[in-house]
Hints:
The radius of gyration is 20 Å and the shape is globular. The protein contains 8 helices and 17 strands. Helix 2 runs antiparallel to helix 3 and helix 5 crosses helix 8 (323-334). The protein has helices at 8-17, 25-46, 68-81, 147-150, 219-229, 247-257, 279-292, 323-334, and strands at 55-59, 65-67, 87-92, 99-100, 110-118, 129-137, 159-165, 169-174, 180-185, 190-195, 206-208, 240-241, 260-263, 277-278, 296-298, 315-316, 318-321. It is an alpha+beta fold. The protein binds 1,6-di-O-phosphono-alpha-D-fructofuranose (AFP). 1,6-di-O-phosphono-alpha-D-fructofuranose binds next to helix 6.
Amino acid sequence: MAKKVVTIQRHIMExxxxxxxxxxxxxxxxxxxxxxxxxxxxxxxxxxxxxxLGLAGKENVQGEQVTKLDEFAQRRIFEQMDHGxxxxxxxxxxxxxxxxxxxxxxxxxxxxxxxPLDGSSNIDxxxxxxxxxxxxxxxxxxxxxxxxxxxxxxxxxxxxxxVVYGSSTMFVYSAGxxxxxxxxxxxxxxxxxxxxxxxxxxxxxxxxxxxGNESSWDEGTRAYVRHLKEKDKATNRxxxxxxxxxxxxxxxxxxxxxxxxxxxPDMSDPAKPKPKLRLLYEAAPIAFIAEHAGGAATTGxxxxxxxEPKSLHERVxxxxxxxxxxxxxxxxxxx
Length: 335
Ligand code: AFP
């Protein structure tokens, strides 16, 4: 018998129908977002053809080089989401402050935060990149969103997800009711349900970390990674190492195959640990997906979803993956 084909629209509508109080606004927000992702996917696929490769010669607020596709993705999402009437404001890894909804456009009750093109230093090598997003409900009074609406606990996210622009384009999201993955069929321009109710394996056999940074890790992380490389049949060691350098791609593999992704802080100056990944645009949405798939996400000392952000571009260390692997890591830190 032919398999039932479920488009992302149908899936979102079916999920919404389970909530009798839902107005449909959240569904429309997701649809608008999905359209922006399809356009970014098209552009990522055409990158080599239309001479959009290379650096735009500017730095973003994090002091990193911005590629042209970063700018395209940032603009695409903003222009797609600024007039739908679902949002009160946006915040992005590429913008210093809260991004207001333009004058004259309708406002809504949701806040959208995003990393428009994560892993963008991979583009010139034709390796995977991604987009990450996080959605909160507005909490301050008034129609315009403020920084207070963005500086929120990860546990308060209404939904989060990401898109991987890889060998195919995949959209993965959770609105608190399981984690679902859709693959873009470019011939019909639709995301089709390919991975319903994803569960991360309880333990994996792959670790993912930039091991070139080992000399600046804390001793606990070093001991843990050494442990993963030791031979021990009973505990299925040594683990294999995989590292793409794009969080979305490294996390997506971890979600499907199990294992652990680590970005510990740079401890070169032990008094001033320097984490790299952004809490609001990377760590919190990825942690939300991980936990809803049965995984775990921590800084090593604190559950990521319980961190109270103090600034829009706050950085945290990220250890995410299979629950047993993350628990092992935490036990090494405590040692
Ligand atoms: P870019 O978007 O600048 O390529 O950064 C990607 C990223 O924020 C995250 O996606 C990766 O996991 C991490 O940085 C890779 O960092 P290293 O290059 O230091 O390993």
